[in-house]
Structure formats: structure tokens, C-alpha cells
Specification:
The structure is a single chain. The protein is 11% helix and 22% strand. The longest helix has 5 residues, at 10-14. 0% of the residues are buried. A hairpin with a 5-residue loop joins β1 (23-27) and β2 (33-37). The chain starts with 9 loop residues before the first helix and ends in a 9-residue tail after the last strand. The protein has 1 helix and 2 strands. Strands 1-2 form a two-stranded antiparallel sheet. By secondary structure, the protein is of the alpha+beta class.
Length: 46
């Protein structure tokens, strides 16, 4: 499979700053949607 565009290497990704409000949305061709937001593990009390 040929990719178009520029992609970051794992080393480049590891230098990026932490982004606490980043989330994700995944959708498929059947119309199902998953929406998630990153949890800050320091806020979870076990």
C-alpha cells in the first residue's frame, strides 16, 4: 500500500508535547460512531 503525504517517525512523535484535551472519533460505513476522550490517569482514584 502506498501512502501519500508526510508521516512522522516514532522518534519525532515522542518529542511532541502532551495534549490533555485530545480525543478521537471513529466512524464506519454502517453509520456506527465511537467517540472517546483521553483520561488523565493522575485523576483516577483507585
Amino acid at each position: 500500500m502506498k501512502h501519500q503525504g508526510n508521516f512522522m517517525t516514532p522518534d519525532e512523535i515522542s518529542t511532541l508535547p502532551y495534549r490533555p484535551c485530545v480525543g478521537i472519533m471513529l466512524a464506519n460505513t454502517r453509520g456506527h460512531v465511537f467517540v472517546g476522550q483521553r483520561l488523565d490517569l493522575s485523576l483516577i482514584h483507585i
